[in-house]
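Whiteboard transcription, Tuesday session. T.W. wrote the C-alpha cells on the left side:
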C-alpha cells in the first residue's frame, strides 16, 4: 500500500472550517476531560481505591509535571515542522492514559494512567496552533484559534454532563474518553493542510531569556499553587460537604461554561493593560476559593464560587500570555510557553502541598491557604508589569509565504490557554 503523501492531501474548501470544530474537540478531550477529569472523578476514585487526600494530591502533581515536560517537547517538535507528530502524541497520550485509568486495578495503576492522560494536553496546543496557521486563511486565523482554544471549557462542561447522565460509571466513561481522543485527533489530522515535511528552525531574533520573565513567571507559579485547590480537590470538597453527585456535576458544568466567558480576557487587557487585568482576574479566583471554603455545602454559594473561578482562571491565563508577550515581544511564543510551564509547575506543587495540608487540617483550611497565595500572586503587577495592551504585544505578522511554525506560535500566543 502506497504511503499517503501529506503534500497531495490538501483539504478542499469545505474542509478548511472543519478544522475549527475538530481542533476544539482535541482541546476539549485532552484538557477538559483527560487532564482536568481527574479532579472531577476524584470522589469516585477515592471510593474505589485506598487513596488519601495527600495521595490524591501527589497523583495530580504527577499529571501537572507531565504536562510541563510534554509542552516543552511539543514546542521543539513544532519549531522543526513536526506538528503533525505532536498532534498524534497529544491524542495518543490522552487515549492511552484514559484507557489505563478505565482498567486500573490499583491506585498505583490509576496514577500512571492519570499521568499519561494529563500529558497529552501539553502536546495539543502547540500542534493545533501550527495546524490552524497552516490551514485556515489568514483573515480567519484569529477567530479560528480563539474558538479552538475554548475547547477546555467545552470539555469541562461535557465532563460535568456525563457525570449527571451516568453517575458511578467512571470506568466506562474513561474508556469513552480514550475513543473520543483518537477520533478527534484523526478528524483534526484529516482537516489540516500540513506543510510538506520537517525543516530546520528559521533564523531570526534570539530566544527569550527566562530571567527577563522572572516577574510573570513567579506570579504564574504562585497562582498555579493556589488554583490547584479547585482543580484537584474542588469536587471532592463539595461531595464531602453533602452535595449529591448530580449537583456537583452540574456545578462543574457551570465552571466550564464560565471559562468560556473568561476567554474574553484579551478585551480586558486591551482596555486596561496588564497592571489592572492581572490583579482583577487573580483576585476573582482568590475570592472564589474563599467562598467555596466558607460554604461548600451551600448550593448558591458554590455556584457563585465556581462561576467566578472558571471565569477568573481562564482570564488569568490569557493575561499571563499578554504579560509574557509584552515583556519579550520578539519571542512571544517562547514567552508564553515559559509562563505556562511556570503555572503548571505551580499547580503540581500545589496539588502536593495542599493535599498534605488538607490531610492534616482539613480541606477548607487548605483552601483558605490557597486563596491567600492567589491574593499574593495578584500583587505581582504592583510595580513591575508593563502597561501593555493586546495590540502592542506581537510584532507585525509576516506574509503567509514567509511564516514559520515559530512565527505562528508567537502570533497566536495571545489566544492559547492551558
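and on the right, the sequence the group agreed on:
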Amino acid at each position: 500500500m502506497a504511503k499517503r503523501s501529506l503534500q497531495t492531501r490538501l483539504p478542499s474548501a469545505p474542509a478548511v472550517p472543519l478544522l475549527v470544530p475538530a481542533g476544539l474537540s482535541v482541546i476539549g478531550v485532552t484538557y477538559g476531560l483527560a487532564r482536568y477529569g481527574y479532579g472531577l472523578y476524584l470522589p469516585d476514585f477515592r471510593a474505589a481505591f485506598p487513596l488519601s487526600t495527600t495521595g490524591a494530591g501527589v497523583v495530580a502533581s504527577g499529571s501537572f509535571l507531565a504536562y510541563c515536560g510534554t509542552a516543552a517537547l511539543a514546542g521543539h517538535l513544532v519549531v522543526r515542522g513536526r506538528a503533525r507528530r505532536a498532534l498524534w502524541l497529544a491524542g495518543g497520550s490522552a487515549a492511552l492514559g484514559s484507557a489505563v485509568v478505565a482498567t486500573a486495578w490499583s491506585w498505583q495503576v490509576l496514577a500512571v494512567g492519570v499521568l499519561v492522560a494529563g500529558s497529552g494536553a501539553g502536546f495539543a496546543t502547540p500542534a493545533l496552533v501550527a495546524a490552524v496557521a497552516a490551514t485556515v486563511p489568514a483573515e480567519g486565523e484569529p477567530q479560528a484559534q480563539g474558538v479552538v482554544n475554548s475547547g477546555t471549557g467545552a470539555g469541562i462542561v461535557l465532563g460535568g454532563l456525563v457525570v449527571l447522565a451516568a453517575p458511578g460509571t467512571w470506568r466506562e466513561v474513561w474508556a469513552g474518553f480514550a475513543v473520543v481522543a483518537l477520533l478527534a485527533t484523526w478528524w483534526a489530522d484529516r482537516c489540516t493542510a500540513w506543510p510538506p515535511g520537517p525543516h530546520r528552525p528559521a533564523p531570526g531574533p534570539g530566544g527569550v531569556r527566562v530571567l527577563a520573565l522572572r516577574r510573570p513567571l513567579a506570579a504564574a507559579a504562585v497562582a498555579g499553587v493556589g488554583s490547584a485547590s479547585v482543580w484537584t480537590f474542588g469536587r471532592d470538597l463539595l461531595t464531602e460537604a453533602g452535595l449529591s453527585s448530580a449537583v456537583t456535576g452540574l456545578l462543574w458544568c457551570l465552571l466550564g461554561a464560565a471559562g468560556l466567558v473568561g476567554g474574553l480576557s484579551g478585551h480586558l487587557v486591551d482596555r486596561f493593560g496588564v497592571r489592572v487585568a492581572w490583579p482583577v482576574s487573580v483576585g476573582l479566583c482568590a475570592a472564589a476559593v474563599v467562598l467555596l471554603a466558607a460554604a461548600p455545602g451551600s448550593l448558591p454559594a458554590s455556584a457563585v464560587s465556581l462561576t467566578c473561578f472558571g471565569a477568573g482562571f481562564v482570564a488569568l491565563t490569557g493575561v499571563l500570555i499578554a504579560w509574557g508577550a509584552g515583556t519579550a515581544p520578539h519571542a512571544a511564543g517562547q514567552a508564553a510557553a515559559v509562563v505556562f510551564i511556570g503555572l503548571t509547575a505551580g499547580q503540581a506543587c500545589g496539588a502536593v502541598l495542599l493535599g498534605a495540608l488538607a490531610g492534616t487540617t482539613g480541606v477548607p483550611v487548605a483552601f483558605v491557604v490557597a486563596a491567600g497565595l492567589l491574593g499574593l500572586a495578584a500583587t505581582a503587577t504592583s510595580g513591575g508589569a508593563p502597561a501593555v495592551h493586546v495590540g502592542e504585544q506581537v510584532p507585525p505578522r509576516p506574509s503567509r509565504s514567509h511564516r514559520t511554525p515559530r512565527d505562528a506560535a508567537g502570533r497566536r500566543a495571545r489566544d492559547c490557554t492551558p
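Someone added at the bottom: DSSP finds 17 helices and no strands in the chain.
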